[in-house]
């Protein structure tokens, strides 16, 4: 099968491309390398250095005629979205429009979109959140992802006939995660501790996240080739505080104390997502526990 992956040079996208190539699919990667790295792109994949906001995206669809599209390209920083909401919306909303319209125009059989589980929901009364929990994005990043979900669920799916799956993953971590950004706290802690650098915790560290190992997410993505329709959460349903996460990682590397800084605007206090729907429809559940996933990630960064 011929498959196009936007954001295929990134942390998650490159793992997905490897999986698809391993299963003998013909893969096309579109990535502008703003955060992705060319060295992560599987040599058997065809690569286009291009932004999803560029009108030339249409030429890629026209030339390659993919049967299936994974849309992972995005502006992924919450802090950046708070400071520059227009830029965030241009990539995450307008860029996604280009992807969806080209899917329709060139007869793509199915689109899998990577939304977010951690930045869309908000009311802690419903933790762990299922897909019907109230949506209360606290950042432009969450708003942009929710906007694309809404267009898929309420317009492109029912009115345009676009077959789609949208994944709302919890916090994904693992090898190739960027240790220099703001979104990959596991990679940041590991890299800094291995290099004897200070580790910063924003706020009091009691804020919680639901951590999913990247291979488990890729397993869900691959299953979506043949199964699934609509929106699915991807998580463990378990909350881990940033303080506890740091304790687990530092206990395996160095007992260095973290430095606490003021909380950042736009971040949720507690987060965990329930995955019962995807377990039922795609027979998916996480296989990698947090300690084992952290150990694998440490080995990568050593």
UniProtKB/TrEMBL annotation:
Organism taxonomic ancestry: Bacteria, Candidatus Komeiliibacteriota
Q: Which family does it belong to?
A: Belongs to the NAD(P)-dependent epimerase/dehydratase family.
Q: Which Gene3D superfamilies match?
A: NAD(P)-binding Rossmann-like Domain, UDP-galactose 4-epimerase, domain 1
Domain NAD-dependent epimerase/dehydratase: start-end pairs: 3-235
Which PANTHER family does this one have?
DTDP-D-GLUCOSE 4,6-DEHYDRATASE-RELATED
Name used for this protein in its record:
UDP-glucose 4-epimerase
Q: Name one Pfam family in it.
A: Epimerase
Origin organism of this chain? Candidatus Komeilibacteria bacterium CG10_big_fil_rev_8_21_14_0_10_41_13
């Amino acid at each position: 099968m011929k498959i196009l992956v936007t954001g295929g040079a990134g942390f998650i996208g490159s793992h997905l491309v490897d999986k698809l190539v391993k299963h003998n699919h013909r893969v096309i990667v579109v990535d502008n390398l703003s955060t992705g790295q060319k060295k992560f792109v599987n040599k058997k994949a065809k690569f286009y250095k291009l932004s999803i906001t560029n009108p030339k995206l249409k030429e890629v669809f026209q030339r390659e005629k993919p049967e299936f599209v994974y849309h992972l390209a995005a502006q992924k920083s919450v802090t950046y979205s708070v400071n520059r909401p227009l830029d965030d919306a241009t990539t995450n909303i307008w860029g996604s429009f280009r992807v969806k319209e080209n899917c329709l125009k060139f007869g793509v059989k199915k689109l899998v979109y990577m939304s977010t589980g951690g930045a869309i929901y908000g009311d802690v009364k419903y933790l762990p959140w299922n897909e019907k929990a109230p949506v209360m994005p606290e950042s432009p990043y969450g708003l942009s992802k929710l906007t694309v979900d809404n267009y898929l669920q309420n317009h492109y799916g029912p009115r345009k006939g676009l077959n789609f799956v949208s994944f709302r993953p919890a916090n994904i971590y693992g090898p190739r995660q960027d240790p220099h950004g703001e979104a990959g706290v596991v990679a940041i802690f590991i890299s800094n501790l291995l290099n004897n650098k200070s580790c910063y915790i924003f706020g009091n560290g009691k804020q919680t996240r639901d951590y999913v190992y990247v291979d488990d997410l890729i397993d869900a993505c691959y299953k979506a080739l043949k199964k699934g329709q609509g929106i699915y959460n991807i998580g463990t349903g378990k909350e881990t505080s940033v303080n506890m996460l740091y304790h687990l990682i530092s206990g395996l590397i160095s007992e260095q104390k973290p430095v606490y800084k003021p909380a950042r605007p736009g971040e949720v206090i507690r987060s965990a997502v329930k995955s019962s729907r995807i377990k039922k429809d795609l027979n998916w559940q996480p296989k990698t526990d947090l300690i084992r996933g952290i150990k694998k990630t440490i080995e990568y960064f050593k």
